[in-house]
Design brief:
The complex is a heterodimer of chains A (234) and B (346). Chain A has 234 residues and is an alpha+beta fold. In chain A, 31% of the residues lie in helices and 15% in strands. Chain A has nine helices and seven strands. Chain B is of the alpha+beta class and 346 residues long. Chain B has eleven helices and twelve strands. The chains are: A alpha+beta (234), B alpha+beta (346). The interface between A and B is medium-sized, with 21 and 21 residues.
């Protein structure tokens, strides 16, 4: 049965607004609809200027992270019945707002790139794959699940206060290669994360682990990287 | 463009993909009677038959009244006989989708599914170096490159096999990238004619200034509906003609589209309006090509021409938009090689 949903959206258009403003939309939705569906209804039938990112709409691409009733989440995997019919939507925090719910992701991706988030192995594998045992693959399975939505990094109080901190998402993606038996650049990444902007900024607030829509144990990944630096072993 | 793959197992109503992995691990398709109906359609490979066959089988079950639900419009993908630990280890994402969107636990209850639009075998014609070609002779359009689903190198024929899109991206992405790097280092920066961007600029300005009463969402929804009704897994002359008439009506309505957002910052209202124009073009190209091909082959199945006709139709369709706005079809032959195309038997 359809329900009436009240959306309260924090809006900002740099061409027009001096500061952000709130706008309310009332839309009909099924309780099992996604928050994203309610946003689409508002955009497509009431106000085409309402702006947000989305692509796959089922939690794979990571485009639609936003603050939903105070908590970071993906609008495409949170259902109306999960959050009730009064829904407050804000852009994720700690990144510059481009317009409405769209933030500039570039600072986030710059931090991501800084940890060399790709396989580095200078040995020629020849005409075959680089083999890996199931046990070795299991070592970093959890951190392969990251979709770079920025929900973790933009929930981190340290990141809000100090944008030079690489942030949880970058550490998660460093972890994914540091503990990959086929990779040869763990030392390099650990050096990067041992700098002032690296893992030692983390105060284990656990916000990141709670925010991750993929259920990655982010804080644990950060702790594993800290231990690898401290005890010089991978 | 007529060869469009429908994946058999999309989540009911949402179309979110439950990949072949589910049937690869032993998942079974069942109709309203609980029958494993694929045994009747493909006795040897059963649930692992090619996507086009499984999609047709599902829709046939639904049409013959063996669909499930109040509208009898879906079938079940049943994983309940699999060991729970196998489901957790091998199908974590797929089963999460089912829990999130259907509130169903796939370890204990079957999953409502229906076929869903999945992959365009057709696309921008390219050669093996990713260069766009403009005719049956393979004449290259200098500087235009394409790779991946938007391109058509023709490695997938009329019906792509699962996972081959990844091979396509890796192989032709690399070859195209290499060719592109070579090309740009061999040519200078060309002088652009004055006003070369006027056409696109004008289109954007007209759309922003538009005061017509047409909404993007209305036209897009109706386009989706007519394609779903008439250009899906089963096609025929009557349905395709209807789709074509609808597309032409919608295309003239599109001339009157007005958008709310007149700004220059992250204008997604404008992006969606422009994308709708391309959707109308692609839909027309697909339907015109499908209507002309009076046979069944690969992903295209015509209920009025049920057999494969190699004598007349072993050829690729090229669709071109002419000056006066019509879609013109030309054809190029299928080049055989090590593996000759032949009819599939299961």
């Amino acid at each position: 049965m359809a329900v009436t949903v009240h959306l309260k959206v924090k809006r900002y258009n740099p061409d027009r607004d001096k500061k952000p403003r709130w706008q309310e939309f009332t839309v009909e939705a099924e309780p099992t609809d996604r928050v994203l569906d309610a946003l689409h209804t508002a955009k497509w039938s009431q106000d085409g200027t309402l702006t947000f990112r989305r692509s796959c709409a089922h939690g794979v691409c990571g485009s639609d992270a936003m603050v939903i009733n105070g908590a970071n989440a993906l609008a495409c995997i949170v259902l109306i019945e999960d959050v009730g019919t009064s829904i407050t939507l804000e852009p994720i925090r700690g990144l510059p707002v481009i317009k409405d719910l769209v933030v500039d992701m570039e600072p986030f991706f710059a931090q991501y790139r800084s940890v060399l988030p790709y396989l580095i192995n200078n040995d020629d594998p020849g005409y075959k794959e680089r083999y890996q045992s199931s046990e070795d693959r299991e070592r970093y399975d959890d951190t392969t699940k990251c979709i770079l939505c920025a929900a973790c990094t933009t929930s981190c109080p340290i990141y809000w206060g100090n944008s030079s901190y690489v942030g949880p998402a970058a550490i998660v993606n460093a972890h994914r290669f540091i503990f990959d038996s086929r990779d040869q650049a763990a030392e390099q990444r650990l050096d990067i994360l041992n700098q002032k902007s690296g893992v030692w900024k983390c105060r284990t607030a656990f916000n990141c682990s709670e925010a991750c829509p993929r259920g990655i144990r982010v804080t644990q990944a950060i702790e594993e990287v800290k231990r690898a630096i401290l005890y010089d072993r991978v | 463009m007529e060869f469009f793959q429908f994946h058999p197992t999309g989540i009911y109503k949402l179309g979110i993909l439950l990949s072949e992995a589910a049937r690869g691990e032993g998942g079974i398709l069942r109709n309203a009677e609980g029958e494993r109906f694929m045994e009747r359609y493909a006795p040897t490979v059963k649930d692992l038959a090619p996507r086009d066959m499984v999609s047709r089988a599902i829709l046939t079950e639904i049409r013959e009244g063996r669909g499930i639900g109040p509208n009898q419009d879906y079938v079940h993908l049943d994983l309940t006989h699999l060991p729970p630990e196998q489901i957790d280890a091998k199908l974590p994402d797929i089963t999460d989708f089912v829990r999130t969107y259907l509130a169903i636990e796939p370890k204990t209850a079957p999953i409502p599914i229906q076929p869903t639009a999945h992959y365009a075998m057709g696309g921008i014609p390219t050669n093996i170096d990713g260069e766009g070609v403009i005719d049956a002779e393979g004449t290259v359009m200098p500087g235009l490159y394409a790779a991946g689903e938007c391109a058509c190198v023709s490695v997938h024929g009329a019906n792509r096999l699962g996972t081959n899109s990844l091979l396509d991206i890796v192989v032709f992405g690399k070859r195209g990238g290499r060719a592109m790097a070579q090309y740009v280092s061999s040519v200078g920066m060309p002088e652009l004619p004055k006003g070369v961007e006027d056409d696109v600029r004008g289109r954007i300005e007209r759309m922003k200034a538009g005061s017509g009463g047409e909404k993007v969402a209305r036209i897009r929804t109706e386009l989706q509906q007519t394609m779903q009704d008439n250009a899906l897994v089963f096609r025929n002359e009557a349905g395709l003609s209807r789709a074509l008439a609808d597309i032409r009506d919608l295309t003239s309505a599109y001339e009157q589209v007005a958008i709310d957002d007149k700004g220059d910052t992250f204008n997604y209202d404008l992006t969606e309006a422009m994308e709708l124009g391309y959707l109308l073009d692609l839909a027309e190209g697909l339907v015109v090509s499908a209507r002309a091909r009076t046979e069944s082959r690969g992903a295209q199945y015509r209920t009025d021409y049920e057999t494969r006709d190699d004598a007349n139709w072993m050829k690729h369709t090229l669709a071109t938009r002419t000056e006066d706005g019509a879609v013109e079809l030309t054809y190029k032959p299928v080049v055989g090689g090590k593996y000759e195309p032949m009819e599939r038997k299961y």
